[in-house]
Amino acid sequence: MKPSFWLILFMVDVAVELLAISFQLERVRFISKPLLILFLIGYAVVATKQRNNLFTLLIAALCFSVLGDIFLLFEQSHPIYFMMGLVSFMLAHIFYILLFNQIRVKNQPEKKWALLSIILLGVYVVFLFLLLEPSLGSLKIPVLVYALVLSAMFLSAIQAFDISKQSFGKICVLGSLFFVISDSLLAIDKFRAHFPMASFTVMATYITAQFLLVLGISKYLNLKSG
Question: Is the pLDDT of residue 162 over 90?
């Protein structure tokens, strides 16, 4: 099967998922939501020429993302499912961090650590945590740890590429940024205050994040295999 086949399946499923959210078709989402990342895995397998350690890390990150998506479908039935989803996505981010760190070593972007980015992201994490803290209860430590891991994933993407010259680097950094936006919106909606179209916005930014990460990493791997 060609990569375009998996992309078409993915795009169709994106439409189904967003429509299911809009019309509150929760039973449909039990099928459409897990399929989103599974279709991206199919795309990555077909579109990526290399089968090296970087590819394995990408697939691992996507597999834990699928688990996270499934667990969060059940979060209304028992709080444990939210925690399991949190852990699954944290592991997904850790695999992305390992992947980007290995890309940085191989890619050698020849740049120092972006101190300004670290400071700005640190300020953002502190601000968001203080905003959510009154409602976190026993989840204060898990949410803080998750926020730090998510931030590390974003920073590792920034450091892995020379984004002024590498288009796939821009795609990966943008994808990691969308992940930060999606998870931030999810946290605000869950722990601070529900806002209109929250589920739709969270899922739209999450889908965009994962798609851009898979696209950018696949492009990098294909370039290095040439």
Answer: no
